[in-house]
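Objective 1b. Sequence-to-structure analysis of Thioredoxin domain-containing protein.
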Amino acid sequence: MTAPDSRRRPVISAALSEADLSALQARFAAAAGAAPVLASAPSPDLAGSPVIDVTDATFQAEVVERSLHVPVIVDLWAAWCGPCSVLSPSLEWLAGEANGAWVLAKLNADENPRIGQMLGLQSIPMVVVVKGGQPVGAFTGVPKEPAIREWLSGLLDASAA
């Protein structure tokens, strides 16, 4: 099994293939009046919690730049979303178990719509893996924990090669 919900994977894959996060990097740099950050730039502080909260404003540094050094799993959720409240604790548990192999970035899709739009968000919960500054896989819904583990292992092992 390569994705927890293979019925939705083609739609999400098509949306992700159009999500070029390097454009986001350049836009943030231009807004700050600085040159774009390249892969050779010093890494952001990677120490700390395996679970971080991100916003439209912090997505560039906390997800895109961090993903140049360690995979970042983005959990797009909303407070009103019942399935999100089921999925998030599982992802947080898995992030803690990963011992820094990847970071979980939680993004409230209602409060931060721009990133959701960029990633082709159509329903929540949605989980996106960002590695090397680009999305490499995603799923929507609430698969069982073993399916999430298998999916993450497949993506993280493939991206490490």
